[in-house]
Specification:
The protein is an alpha/beta fold and 258 residues long. The chain is built from ten helices and ten strands. The longest helix has 24 residues, at 3-26. The relative contact order is 0.19.
Protein backbone atom coordinates (compact mmCIF):
# COMPACT_ATOMS: atom_id res chain seq x y z
CA UNK A 1 0.00 0.00 0.00
CA UNK A 2 1.33 3.39 -0.96
CA UNK A 3 2.04 5.94 1.77
CA UNK A 4 -0.46 8.34 0.24
CA UNK A 5 -3.29 5.76 0.42
CA UNK A 6 -2.34 4.88 3.98
CA UNK A 7 -2.43 8.56 4.95
CA UNK A 8 -5.92 8.95 3.45
CA UNK A 9 -7.21 5.89 5.28
CA UNK A 10 -5.77 7.10 8.59
CA UNK A 11 -7.22 10.57 8.05
CA UNK A 12 -10.69 9.16 7.38
CA UNK A 13 -10.53 6.89 10.43
CA UNK A 14 -9.35 9.76 12.63
CA UNK A 15 -12.14 12.02 11.39
CA UNK A 16 -14.68 9.30 12.06
CA UNK A 17 -13.34 8.74 15.55
CA UNK A 18 -13.43 12.45 16.37
CA UNK A 19 -16.98 12.73 15.03
CA UNK A 20 -18.06 9.74 17.10
CA UNK A 21 -16.50 11.17 20.25
CA UNK A 22 -18.10 14.54 19.58
CA UNK A 23 -21.54 13.02 19.19
CA UNK A 24 -21.04 10.88 22.28
CA UNK A 25 -20.04 13.79 24.50
CA UNK A 26 -22.68 16.08 23.01
CA UNK A 27 -25.26 13.64 24.37
CA UNK A 28 -23.75 13.51 27.87
CA UNK A 29 -25.37 15.77 30.45
CA UNK A 30 -22.69 16.95 32.90
CA UNK A 31 -23.12 16.65 36.65
CA UNK A 32 -23.02 19.97 38.45
CA UNK A 33 -24.92 23.15 39.21
CA UNK A 34 -27.24 24.72 36.69
CA UNK A 35 -25.73 27.90 35.27
CA UNK A 36 -26.39 30.19 32.31
CA UNK A 37 -24.41 32.08 29.70
CA UNK A 38 -26.19 35.21 28.42
CA UNK A 39 -24.57 35.79 25.04
CA UNK A 40 -27.08 38.08 23.32
CA UNK A 41 -29.29 40.50 25.24
CA UNK A 42 -32.95 39.64 24.91
CA UNK A 43 -32.21 36.16 23.56
CA UNK A 44 -32.38 32.83 25.42
CA UNK A 45 -29.14 31.95 27.22
CA UNK A 46 -27.16 28.75 26.91
CA UNK A 47 -27.20 26.24 29.75
CA UNK A 48 -24.81 23.41 30.58
CA UNK A 49 -27.27 21.05 28.87
CA UNK A 50 -29.34 21.77 25.79
CA UNK A 51 -33.12 21.77 25.59
CA UNK A 52 -32.93 18.61 23.47
CA UNK A 53 -30.74 16.81 26.00
CA UNK A 54 -33.07 17.73 28.86
CA UNK A 55 -36.18 16.75 26.93
CA UNK A 56 -35.14 13.08 27.07
CA UNK A 57 -35.82 13.24 30.81
CA UNK A 58 -38.91 15.47 30.78
CA UNK A 59 -36.73 18.34 31.98
CA UNK A 60 -36.78 21.94 30.76
CA UNK A 61 -35.07 25.25 31.27
CA UNK A 62 -36.83 27.13 28.50
CA UNK A 63 -40.31 27.32 27.02
CA UNK A 64 -41.62 28.23 23.58
CA UNK A 65 -39.06 30.60 22.06
CA UNK A 66 -41.46 31.46 19.22
CA UNK A 67 -43.87 33.20 21.58
CA UNK A 68 -43.62 36.13 24.00
CA UNK A 69 -44.52 34.03 27.00
CA UNK A 70 -43.03 33.90 30.50
CA UNK A 71 -43.24 31.08 33.05
CA UNK A 72 -42.76 32.60 36.51
CA UNK A 73 -41.39 30.45 39.33
CA UNK A 74 -40.32 31.07 42.92
CA UNK A 75 -38.11 29.03 45.25
CA UNK A 76 -38.50 29.18 49.02
CA UNK A 77 -36.67 27.34 51.77
CA UNK A 78 -38.33 29.36 54.52
CA UNK A 79 -40.73 32.26 55.06
CA UNK A 80 -39.66 35.73 56.14
CA UNK A 81 -42.75 37.82 55.52
CA UNK A 82 -42.39 38.55 51.79
CA UNK A 83 -44.66 35.94 50.24
CA UNK A 84 -48.01 37.52 51.06
CA UNK A 85 -47.02 40.71 49.24
CA UNK A 86 -45.79 38.68 46.28
CA UNK A 87 -49.09 36.78 46.16
CA UNK A 88 -50.97 40.10 46.30
CA UNK A 89 -49.01 41.33 43.28
CA UNK A 90 -49.56 38.13 41.32
CA UNK A 91 -53.29 38.40 42.01
CA UNK A 92 -53.32 42.04 40.89
CA UNK A 93 -51.77 41.09 37.54
CA UNK A 94 -53.65 37.78 37.25
CA UNK A 95 -50.31 36.00 36.82
CA UNK A 96 -49.96 32.26 37.53
CA UNK A 97 -46.75 31.11 39.20
CA UNK A 98 -45.12 27.99 40.55
CA UNK A 99 -43.70 27.94 44.09
CA UNK A 100 -41.06 25.29 44.74
CA UNK A 101 -41.16 24.60 48.47
CA UNK A 102 -39.33 22.43 51.00
CA UNK A 103 -40.68 20.48 53.96
CA UNK A 104 -39.80 23.10 56.54
CA UNK A 105 -41.78 25.70 54.63
CA UNK A 106 -44.90 23.54 54.42
CA UNK A 107 -44.73 22.62 58.10
CA UNK A 108 -44.41 26.21 59.32
CA UNK A 109 -46.61 28.03 56.79
CA UNK A 110 -49.63 25.88 55.95
CA UNK A 111 -51.92 28.90 55.50
CA UNK A 112 -49.65 30.40 52.85
CA UNK A 113 -49.41 27.06 51.08
CA UNK A 114 -53.18 26.76 51.01
CA UNK A 115 -53.42 30.34 49.73
CA UNK A 116 -51.05 29.51 46.86
CA UNK A 117 -53.24 26.59 45.87
CA UNK A 118 -56.52 28.46 46.33
CA UNK A 119 -55.29 31.31 44.10
CA UNK A 120 -54.41 28.95 41.28
CA UNK A 121 -50.65 28.65 41.68
CA UNK A 122 -48.66 25.44 41.37
CA UNK A 123 -46.78 24.17 44.42
CA UNK A 124 -43.79 22.22 43.16
CA UNK A 125 -41.41 19.81 44.87
CA UNK A 126 -38.14 21.31 46.12
CA UNK A 127 -37.54 18.17 48.26
CA UNK A 128 -38.21 17.52 51.91
CA UNK A 129 -34.82 18.56 53.33
CA UNK A 130 -33.14 20.55 50.51
CA UNK A 131 -30.06 18.30 50.11
CA UNK A 132 -27.63 18.22 47.21
CA UNK A 133 -29.59 15.69 45.18
CA UNK A 134 -26.73 15.16 42.72
CA UNK A 135 -24.92 13.29 45.52
CA UNK A 136 -27.83 10.90 46.09
CA UNK A 137 -27.39 7.84 43.87
CA UNK A 138 -29.65 5.53 45.85
CA UNK A 139 -33.07 5.34 44.22
CA UNK A 140 -34.96 4.85 47.50
CA UNK A 141 -33.28 7.84 49.17
CA UNK A 142 -33.92 10.01 46.13
CA UNK A 143 -37.58 9.00 46.01
CA UNK A 144 -38.06 9.57 49.76
CA UNK A 145 -36.98 13.22 49.47
CA UNK A 146 -39.80 13.76 46.98
CA UNK A 147 -42.48 11.43 48.35
CA UNK A 148 -42.24 12.73 51.93
CA UNK A 149 -43.00 16.23 50.67
CA UNK A 150 -45.91 14.92 48.60
CA UNK A 151 -47.45 13.35 51.71
CA UNK A 152 -47.02 16.54 53.73
CA UNK A 153 -48.57 18.64 50.96
CA UNK A 154 -51.63 16.37 50.82
CA UNK A 155 -52.03 16.50 54.60
CA UNK A 156 -52.07 20.31 54.47
CA UNK A 157 -54.15 20.91 51.34
CA UNK A 158 -56.12 17.73 50.78
CA UNK A 159 -54.82 17.74 47.21
CA UNK A 160 -52.27 15.76 45.23
CA UNK A 161 -49.00 17.56 44.60
CA UNK A 162 -48.16 18.51 41.02
CA UNK A 163 -45.29 16.46 39.60
CA UNK A 164 -42.87 19.32 39.07
CA UNK A 165 -39.43 19.11 40.67
CA UNK A 166 -36.66 21.67 41.05
CA UNK A 167 -33.29 20.38 42.28
CA UNK A 168 -32.08 22.26 45.36
CA UNK A 169 -29.38 24.80 44.45
CA UNK A 170 -29.76 23.65 40.87
CA UNK A 171 -27.46 20.67 41.56
CA UNK A 172 -28.22 17.70 39.34
CA UNK A 173 -26.85 14.69 37.51
CA UNK A 174 -28.10 12.77 34.51
CA UNK A 175 -28.98 9.88 36.82
CA UNK A 176 -31.06 12.27 38.96
CA UNK A 177 -32.96 13.42 35.89
CA UNK A 178 -33.59 9.81 34.94
CA UNK A 179 -34.86 8.89 38.41
CA UNK A 180 -37.12 11.94 38.54
CA UNK A 181 -38.67 10.99 35.21
CA UNK A 182 -39.18 7.40 36.35
CA UNK A 183 -41.07 8.80 39.37
CA UNK A 184 -43.33 10.76 37.04
CA UNK A 185 -41.67 14.13 37.68
CA UNK A 186 -40.78 16.89 35.27
CA UNK A 187 -37.57 18.70 36.27
CA UNK A 188 -37.71 22.49 36.02
CA UNK A 189 -34.53 24.51 35.65
CA UNK A 190 -34.60 28.17 34.55
CA UNK A 191 -33.42 30.56 31.84
CA UNK A 192 -33.50 33.81 33.81
CA UNK A 193 -32.43 34.52 37.39
CA UNK A 194 -30.27 36.90 39.37
CA UNK A 195 -28.60 36.93 42.78
CA UNK A 196 -31.65 37.64 44.95
CA UNK A 197 -31.32 34.89 47.56
CA UNK A 198 -28.80 36.43 49.98
CA UNK A 199 -30.83 38.28 52.61
CA UNK A 200 -27.69 39.79 54.09
CA UNK A 201 -26.89 41.47 50.77
CA UNK A 202 -30.17 42.17 49.04
CA UNK A 203 -29.86 43.78 45.59
CA UNK A 204 -31.18 47.27 45.03
CA UNK A 205 -34.34 47.80 43.02
CA UNK A 206 -32.26 49.32 40.22
CA UNK A 207 -30.06 46.23 40.12
CA UNK A 208 -33.11 43.96 39.90
CA UNK A 209 -34.49 45.98 36.98
CA UNK A 210 -31.10 45.96 35.23
CA UNK A 211 -30.97 42.14 35.33
CA UNK A 212 -34.60 41.18 34.79
CA UNK A 213 -35.73 43.61 32.10
CA UNK A 214 -32.95 43.50 29.45
CA UNK A 215 -32.48 39.73 29.76
CA UNK A 216 -36.13 38.75 29.38
CA UNK A 217 -36.74 36.58 26.31
CA UNK A 218 -39.36 34.45 24.62
CA UNK A 219 -40.19 31.32 26.58
CA UNK A 220 -38.33 32.48 29.68
CA UNK A 221 -38.57 30.29 32.77
CA UNK A 222 -37.89 32.87 35.46
CA UNK A 223 -36.54 31.91 38.87
CA UNK A 224 -37.02 34.34 41.74
CA UNK A 225 -36.83 33.75 45.49
CA UNK A 226 -39.90 34.63 47.52
CA UNK A 227 -37.62 35.32 50.50
CA UNK A 228 -36.26 38.41 48.74
CA UNK A 229 -37.51 41.75 50.08
CA UNK A 230 -36.32 43.32 46.84
CA UNK A 231 -38.49 40.98 44.80
CA UNK A 232 -41.51 41.81 46.94
CA UNK A 233 -40.81 45.50 46.38
CA UNK A 234 -40.18 45.47 42.62
CA UNK A 235 -42.43 42.63 41.39
CA UNK A 236 -45.35 44.93 40.53
CA UNK A 237 -43.08 47.14 38.43
CA UNK A 238 -41.29 44.19 36.80
CA UNK A 239 -44.54 42.55 35.76
CA UNK A 240 -45.81 45.87 34.43
CA UNK A 241 -42.63 46.31 32.36
CA UNK A 242 -42.83 42.81 30.93
CA UNK A 243 -46.49 43.29 30.08
CA UNK A 244 -45.64 46.57 28.31
CA UNK A 245 -43.09 44.64 26.23
CA UNK A 246 -45.90 42.38 25.03
CA UNK A 247 -45.30 39.34 27.18
CA UNK A 248 -48.00 37.17 28.68
CA UNK A 249 -47.67 34.76 31.58
CA UNK A 250 -48.45 31.04 31.54
CA UNK A 251 -48.31 28.17 34.00
CA UNK A 252 -45.97 25.20 33.83
CA UNK A 253 -48.98 23.11 32.85
CA UNK A 254 -49.17 25.03 29.58
CA UNK A 255 -45.45 24.65 29.01
CA UNK A 256 -45.81 20.86 28.97
CA UNK A 257 -49.13 20.84 27.14
CA UNK A 258 -47.52 22.08 23.91
Amino acid sequence: MRKRDLFIILAVLTAGLLLGLSLMFDNVIPTGAWGLSYQVQGQPPQGPASAAQLAKYDAVYLGNTEEKVIYLTFDAGYENGCTARILDTLKKHNVPAAFFLVGNYLEKNPDLVRRMVDEGHIVGNHTMHHPDMSKISNRSAFEKELSDLEVLFTEITGKTMSKYYRPPQGNYSEENLKMAKELGYKTIFWSLAYVDWNNDRQPTADHAYSKLIPRIHNGAVVLLHSTSATNAEVLDGILTKWEALGYRFASLDELFAS
